[in-house]
Amino acid sequence: MGIIQQQTVKGSVYSYLGVFIGFFTTFLIMPHVLTPEQVGLTGILSSFSIMTAQFSILGFNATARIFPFFRNEKENHNGYLFLACAVAFVGFILFCIVAFLIKDQVVSQKGSENELFKDYYWCLIPLTFFTLFFNVFDLYARMLYDTTTGRVLNEFTKRIFILVTLLVASFKLLDFNQFMWIWLIANIIPTTIIAYRLYSRKQLVIRPNFHFLKRPIKSQLVHLCVFGILTGSAPYIIQNVDKFMVTESHGLNSTGVYQIAFNFAIIITLPARSLYSIAYTVISEAWKDNNLDSILSIYKKSCINQIISSLFLFMLIWINIDNIYKVLPPEYAEGRYVIFFIGLGNLIDSATGVNGVILSTSRYYKLDSFFYLVLAGVTIGANMIFIPIFGITGAAIASALTYAIFNLSRYLFILFVFKLQPFTVKTPVAILIGIASYYVVNFIPVMPNFIVDGFTRSILITILFGGAVYYLRLSEDINALIKEALSRFKSNRQ
């Protein structure tokens, strides 16, 4: 896949380094330094700021699909960054007004159990501002084919700062209030760094080009922003509303338990997230040239690659689920099946490849807005049904159900409208190999030492599943990566 494969691999390397840091932070440090309620506070603040930042951009991220028409390095891409920053600033002002008006309603959820949220509510203002402009600068960088900088900063650099802060707090050198201020700074740093990186490349030029904004372009920008508010915001509602509803019905303590399990399960999405970043730009260019063959090739490869990689990660986690919870304090045990269902939902989402990118960059992008709007309603409804019955596991079930419905709808639409079928006979083969590998390893008796047990199970499932995938040549890209890794291993031994 050329540029896609190169940047996906590069992005994945940094993402997995971030996963290692995140794993160490989330599972070995945070639950032992912070109470579940305090963990829940950091989780709800992060989720809230991510969602409000997405609303505040006022749908401008959807204009990325027409960035090829702005692209002109000599003209600083015709003022695209100026437009993005101007829209974002207006959106931020609107958010501040709304945040002031709804404060009492938001912090009064679950009464006294959310007093901690009330104390730190105003942290949402700087968090939203810097998250918003990080999104703006990252979007711009990705349009200029730099998909790794934002990922490194958000998934690696920020986690390093948070880890160091938690380590200091673990020695009782910080109280919780001091920890929260440094945690806030850690969330701000990525925005300043990505802005400086754009500046050092002479790409941070916030200068308008009103002469370029002819009536057709202005009209298209307005239409894209209107539908982008739905398309861009609805996914974040889908991804974050569960935490708000858990907080409302069960309090910050349960949110903390849910947050720890949720963070573990989203490891499954990492390969897909690296792929989506660059695929968006490439597929947008392909639509411009009406190159359906190129789109189908990317679609097919993305599906088989993501099925294999996401299924492997899902099995790796679930085969070690008992070992995982031996590391955590007992009060987090309720999150066991949250990992399963959130992981299953992410597996379904990853396995359908770049269907969302194809639809959102096509002439039917407005219909994608409709899909998201309907799904946001389904998500809220499913959470209202399942959380009272199954507690935090109910929120995870609702998430898995939502992803299944959403991706089936997208798949069928692309199949019938564009005649693009991404799945081949290799798809069920990969799934069957994964299931067989899991059950073979699951028959192994539990070992007394959970570290040895986890290491043994992980190695065996890697050999069984990875070996079968390689031998049957299910993915050209994955085979090439395995061959390269084996070649380097052999050369290092000589």
Automatic annotation (TrEMBL):
<keyword id="KW-0812">Transmembrane</keyword>
<feature type="transmembrane region" description="Helical">
    <location>
        <begin position="370"/>
        <end position="390"/>
    </location>
</feature>
<feature type="transmembrane region" description="Helical">
    <location>
        <begin position="429"/>
        <end position="448"/>
    </location>
</feature>
<feature type="transmembrane region" description="Helical">
    <location>
        <begin position="454"/>
        <end position="472"/>
    </location>
</feature>
<feature type="transmembrane region" description="Helical">
    <location>
        <begin position="337"/>
        <end position="358"/>
    </location>
</feature>
<feature type="transmembrane region" description="Helical">
    <location>
        <begin position="39"/>
        <end position="60"/>
    </location>
</feature>
<dbReference type="GO" id="GO:0005886">
    <property type="term" value="C:plasma membrane"/>
</dbReference>
<feature type="transmembrane region" description="Helical">
    <location>
        <begin position="122"/>
        <end position="144"/>
    </location>
</feature>
<feature type="transmembrane region" description="Helical">
    <location>
        <begin position="12"/>
        <end position="33"/>
    </location>
</feature>
<keyword id="KW-1133">Transmembrane helix</keyword>
<keyword id="KW-1003">Cell membrane</keyword>
<feature type="transmembrane region" description="Helical">
    <location>
        <begin position="303"/>
        <end position="321"/>
    </location>
</feature>
<keyword id="KW-0472">Membrane</keyword>
<feature type="transmembrane region" description="Helical">
    <location>
        <begin position="156"/>
        <end position="174"/>
    </location>
</feature>
<feature type="transmembrane region" description="Helical">
    <location>
        <begin position="258"/>
        <end position="283"/>
    </location>
</feature>
<feature type="transmembrane region" description="Helical">
    <location>
        <begin position="180"/>
        <end position="199"/>
    </location>
</feature>
<feature type="transmembrane region" description="Helical">
    <location>
        <begin position="80"/>
        <end position="102"/>
    </location>
</feature>
<feature type="transmembrane region" description="Helical">
    <location>
        <begin position="396"/>
        <end position="417"/>
    </location>
</feature>
<dbReference type="InterPro" id="IPR050833">
    <property type="entry name" value="Poly_Biosynth_Transport"/>
</dbReference>
<protein>
    <submittedName>
        <fullName>Polysaccharide biosynthesis protein</fullName>
    </submittedName>
</protein>
<feature type="transmembrane region" description="Helical">
    <location>
        <begin position="220"/>
        <end position="238"/>
    </location>
</feature>
